Amino acid sequence: CAVGGVEPQTETVWRQADNYNVPRIAFINKMDRMGANFFSVLDQMEKKLGANPVPLFIPIGSEGDFSGVIDIIRKKALTFSKDNQGKDIIETDIPLDLQDLANQWYEKLIDAVASFSDEITELYFEGEDIPEDMIRKTLRECTLSRSLLPVFVGSSLKNIGVQTLLDGVVDLLPSPLELP
């Protein structure tokens, strides 16, 4: 919860998932509520859960000003139509005032996945662009091995960021056919 942080029931479910080696992703919800603080919740995930959170999206605004998310990998701003409860996603360039923040989180993302991929490390040190599919492939491997925790953000009540979360379920988590 963007307001309450890592809650006791989350800790309980987290321990069970650890016991059964369940891969997982995280969704920081309620970014539209008063007191929402995405970055504080990331810290709590590290401290309380012992997780290695890696945001794939960061919020555009918070509380009453929460209007969408920034796709860190694709470097795009996503807003969600109020006319049809967020079904339509409007993709634009990242607002100028958020570009530095987005670039910082992109660097952190690349640093995190480079720890698990020599290919990404080489491309990074050579100053080359790192293909999205290579980043996603490494993220999936790290999710399945429980080395990294991909983090999504939004407001389920307003249907903001829910679509990106569902894409993350499909892209990053194992299908039932991949499990013993």
Features:
180 residues, alpha/beta, four-stranded antiparallel β-sheet, three-stranded parallel β-sheet, 16% strand
Describe the structure.
- With 180 residues, the protein is α/β, with parallel strands linked by helices.
- It is 40% helix and 16% strand.
- It has helices at residues 8-19, 38-49, 99-114, 118-125, 132-144, 162-172; strands at 26-28, 53-55, 57-60, 68-71, 76-80, 89-92, 149-153.
- A four-stranded antiparallel β-sheet has the order 3-4-5-6, with no helix packed on it. A three-stranded parallel β-sheet has the order 1-7-2, sandwiched between helices.
- Helix 3 packs across helix 4.
- The radius of gyration is 16 Å and the shape is globular.
Measured distance between first and last alpha carbons: 32 Å
Number of helices: 6
Q: Which overall shape is indicated by the principal axes computed on the Cα atoms?
A: globular
The share of residues in helices is 40-55%
Structural class, please?
alpha/beta
Mean pLDDT: 94
Number of extended strands: 7
Give the strand content: 15-25%
| Biggest β-sheet: strands ordered side by side in the sheet | 3-4-5-6
- Give the ordered list of helices and strands: HEHEEEEEHHHEH
The low-confidence parts are none
> For the report, how would you describe the main beta sheet?
4 strands, antiparallel
- Using the CA coordinates, give the radius of gyration: 16 Å
